[in-house]
Amino acid sequence: MFVANNIVEVIQLMLAPGLMISACGLLLLGMNNKYSIVVNRIRVLEDEKRKLLVRSENNETALSDNVRLESITKQLEKLIYRVKLVKRAVQNYTIAVAFFILTSIFIGMSYLFEMGNLQYLITIVFLAGMLLVLAGAMFAAYEIKKGYEIIILEIEVE
């Protein structure tokens, strides 16, 4: 049976993964927002591209329309790549949450069933979660760089 000190220790040990779950939740919230914005931008550009193509079929295009169509095509390519980066960041953060949940479960199990030999597994699972958070952050940072490149494309055309 547990004494009060052991229960407090277990709860304290389980807080670190719990804090990481909260942190990943915030990161996921931001990335899901970014995903929505990028997808919306793709839809807007696709709509504009369709309208320009209809005008070109009716021989109503100007040189500026062709330049804009070329810019839209380049932006769409980059936006599709950017969506993939956001998706990878979200996947890494989500899997990291699963690893942190597993860490908490393993901590609880190790104390509940007096399985001290789970310490290495707990450490490995927690570190794997942290590495996934790092990978997600790297994808997010690279996505920001790609977003900047798209803005430069947009400015160059105008």
Describe the structure.
- The protein is mostly helical and 158 residues long.
- It has one domain (4-157): Substrate Binding Domain Of Dnak, Chain:A, Domain 2.
- It is 91% helix and 0% strand.
- The chain has helices spanning 4-57, 63-112, 119-157.
- The chain is rod-shaped and about 80 Å long.
Count structural domains. 1
Number of strands: 0
Taking pLDDT < 50 over at least 5 consecutive residues as the criterion, the unreliable ranges are none
Shape: rod-shaped
Mean pLDDT: 88
Specify Rg, calculated over alpha carbons. 24 Å
SSE series: HHH
CATH class: Mainly Alpha
What is the terminal-to-terminal distance? 73 Å
Strand content: under 5%
Helix share of residues?
Answer: over 70%
Largest sheet: none
Topology:
Blueprint: H1 4-57, H2 63-112, H3 119-157
Helix pairs in contact: 1-2, 1-3, 2-3
Overview features:
158 residues, 91% helix, mainly alpha, 3 helices
Overview in brief:
It contains three helices and no strands. It is mainly alpha-helical. Helix 1 (4-57) runs antiparallel to helix 2, helix 1 runs parallel beside helix 3 and helix 2 runs antiparallel to helix 3 (119-157).
